[in-house]
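TL;DR need structure tokens for one chain.
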Amino acid sequence: MDDQEAVVAQALRVVTERFPHALGAVLGGSAAQGRATATSDLDVAVLLPDSDTSRREVIRHDGRIVELFLNTLADVPEFFAWDRARRRGTVLFVYGQGLPLADPHGHVARARQLAKDVLASGPPALTATEWEHGRYVLTCFLDDLIDTPSDNRYEQLSLADQVLRKAADLVTAHHSAWAGMGKWLPRRLLSADPSLGKALLDGHRVVAEHADPRPLATAVKQALDLFGGPLMEGYAHRWRG
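>> reply
TL;DR here they are.
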């Protein structure tokens, strides 16, 4: 048995041992793509009967962390809509791009097709209010980064992280592309805009390695030009208490 087969077999054991009543399951993430290492987590979506409860659990199985995305059959459409609204589509990608582990009644196949349809529709567009807020926040973080002395590394690095995250969110939104966090931030950013995404990531690395914010600032200003430019004075936010 090769490594990929071993990972798939382990994921299937998790499902059959812990959820014998499951309607089916899907293996997602790097494990489904054959890129799992010996220490990689397993992302497993489990489809449950409506007598159970939708939830998320994290367990350890045979020394490996397993992230379990548990949804009842009736909850799937609503959960997919919620996952889309977050603009990251975490579970949507598990179903839409994952590897089916078990599907005795065809429920997983239908859930996977729904996930693929939702993914194809893309994330929801930002509202005008969200665009204004995003521009304002990114402008504030960028100004703070530029003004921070290079020897204040704690603040400089924290600000560089915030600048990259906010810029990535806005760039992916501009291209109607899915956003990401953690290791998925650079992957989704580069997929949405290879040139500007690389400039932002390279600029962030220059801050980390050389305490120089100028390349990142240049890339962020290019990004802001796509959304209407920097926004500070004139910005207003109404409290909806």
